[in-house]
Write a structure and sequence with these properties.
Number of domains: 1
Helix content: 25-40%
Order of helices and strands: EHEHEHEHE
Largest sheet: 5 strands, parallel
InterPro entries: DsrEFH-like, Sulphur_relay_DsrE/F-like
CATH superfamily: DsrEFH-like
Strand order of the largest sheet: 4-3-2-1-5
Pfam family, one: DsrE
CATH architecture: 3-Layer(aba) Sandwich
Distance between the termini: 13 Å
Number of helices: 4
Shape: globular
Strand content: 15-25%
Radius of gyration: 13 Å
CATH class: Alpha Beta
Length: about 120
């Protein structure tokens, strides 16, 4: 599954949704590629977002879902839109070890490699 995330930590209810979708894909034995852009770029930065604090009523904490994805090798990649991130003061050294910088070409590649693309 390919997921484009656009919502950041300022809206915890919507921030959780891409990770819940990813967990659903994992339960079906699929891997997930996430492309984070706009406010969602903060999610790939350990200096800008504490994923253990991001939760929504009735839904799991983002960090718990991410841990499950990583533990089960279900997160194929988490690409952070570099121009979006840099516009928000996020530098490469701010990225989590499971995140990388990329651009529109990476988003297109991810979409081409997967049958399903979702945007949140």
């Amino acid at each position: 599954m390919h997921i484009i995330a656009t919502v950041g930590p300022d809206n915890t209810t919507k921030t959780v949704l891409p990770f819940v979708a990813a967990k659903g894909a994992m339960s079906r034995g699929e891997t997930v590629a996430i492309f984070a852009m706009q406010e969602a770029t903060y999610l790939g930065s350990t200096r800008h977002a504490d994923l253990s604090e991001l939760k929504a009523p009735g839904l799991p904490v983002v960090q718990d879902v991410l841990n499950a994805l990583l533990d089960n090798d279900a997160l194929a990649e988490f690409v952070v839109c570099e121009p979006c991130a840099k516009a928000r003061g996020i530098q490469e050294e701010d990225l989590a070890d499971w995140a990388t910088f990329g651009g529109a070409g990476d988003m297109a590649r991810q979409a081409a490699e997967h049958d399903t693309s979702l945007t949140f």
